[in-house]
């Protein structure tokens, strides 16, 4: 396991005070903060080719939802860990992130010791879940499959079934099936309702 002195961390949170405070706390505990961002777009722009051991992300930031951002980071930085900090009460979202191999979930009401413990778990290759969030995971609804997650993100962007089929190199019929499964799991009867529910559950933040 790497020592904390060698661990490079990137923090993304749209609240300046929280982000700078966390950065100071981590730096004071031997971690090297190599970058900060206040949106997912800024993260993509700033991170570039930087070497990052652990990304620490807020679950609700401008530009992209946490599921899409996790998948992007896993593709772009396969060796990096992704730890989410959250003030949300969103068991379904948390289960989705854990099922997609997020490195951990930490409640924003946790103290710095919990954050440090979560980082240590990440470095050991273990998943960390705050005690405050564990019960929400156990009570959460059925999660989306990896393919449904991709279709879901494009639906939230307002893309049609045909457009999604072209992007994912699938038939429109296959996308229709995924869409129906997504609507069923979210108990939504229209795309507008799906977006409203997704926003309430923390999957997506309306611009």
TrEMBL record:
GO biological process: phosphorelay signal transduction system; regulation of DNA-templated transcription
Taxonomy, superkingdom: Bacteria
One Pfam short name: GerE
Domain Response regulatory: 8-123
Molecular function terms from GO: DNA binding
PROSITE patterns xref list: HTH_LUXR_2, RESPONSE_REGULATORY
Keywords: DNA-binding, Phosphoprotein
InterPro entries listed in its UniProt record: CheY-like_superfamily, EvgA-like, NreC/VraR/RcsB-like_REC, Sig_transdc_resp-reg_C-effctor, Sig_transdc_resp-reg_receiver, Tscrpt_reg_LuxR_C
Record's protein name: Response regulator transcription factor
Protein source organism: Thalassomonas viridans
